[in-house]
Amino acid sequence: MTEGRASEGDEGRDRPAAPEVDTLLTGLGLSWEQGSIGFGAVYLVTAGSRRILFDCGHTGRRRALLGALAARGLGPGDIHVLVLSHGHWDHVQNADLFAGADVLLHPAESEHLAAAPTGDPFTPPWSAAVLRSSSVRGAQDGLTLAPGVTVTGLPGHTAGSIGLTVRTARGTALLTGDAVSSARALREGRCTTVLAGEADAARSLDLVRSRADLVYPGHDRPFAVVAGAPGRYLLPPAWPGGLAPGQAGSAVPGP
């Protein structure tokens, strides 16, 4: 049994098993007077024989990511699709590990990266070079990646932010990237950082509330949703130095 999975078990001999979501790396966002630490979460979706990675973290987490894959008997070559929730540095820097995978990114994000924006701390001018060796294609709302796994548009944090809706045996899981960075963000009804319109960000939050039974956020542990609000966390605290929040809804917001 893998602790981070959202669904598992025998789904019956007459139908395929429901997709599973496994937390490879738990997310953490921490800001203080010395700066910000953005540890983006990395999730593995398994749908039949198809393996889909959602985000890949920054290079500071490369060893941990490779270790998490190895612990499951996998390597980068076993990933078929890499979905990038958006183009910020802390979510994309390890994309080069997955040279054999199709890399999916919303066209608005690709355009923003290609423009080499200045003054954007989340998208340094070198960001486009990170994906230069990858086979990147556009992904928009409604694209089906496997039975029960669909791309979901979640604009607001950025113009092209996307998530994944996964129909698991335990309910509908929504992998949100930074559209919902933490349980606290959902509880307070606000996207932590809005770069592409408050109205879009609010609509994305409402979509998550109305659709998700389980949320896999960008900078927090996955948690259940009860009546549109954060419920219990699905995983125990994993932060060093006692930084873990004590309960869902008090999570440290991500960048």
Summarize the structure.
With 255 residues, the chain is α/β, with parallel strands linked by helices. Helices cover 18% and strands 29% of the residues.
What does this structure look like?
The chain has helices at residues 62-71, 89-92, 107-114, 127-130, 183-188, 198-211; strands at residues 20-25, 28-32, 35-39, 42-47, 50-54, 81-83, 102-105, 135-138, 144-146, 149-153, 162-168, 171-177, 214-217, 223-226, 229-233. By secondary structure, the chain is an alpha/beta fold. The chain has one domain: Metallo-beta-lactamase, Chain A, CATH 3.60.15. The strands form 3 sheets. A 7-stranded mixed sheet has the order 9-10-11-12-13-14-15. A 6-stranded mixed sheet has the order 1-4-5-6-7-8. Strand 5, helix 1 (62-71) and strand 6 (81-83) form a beta-alpha-beta unit. The longest helix has 14 residues, at 198-211.
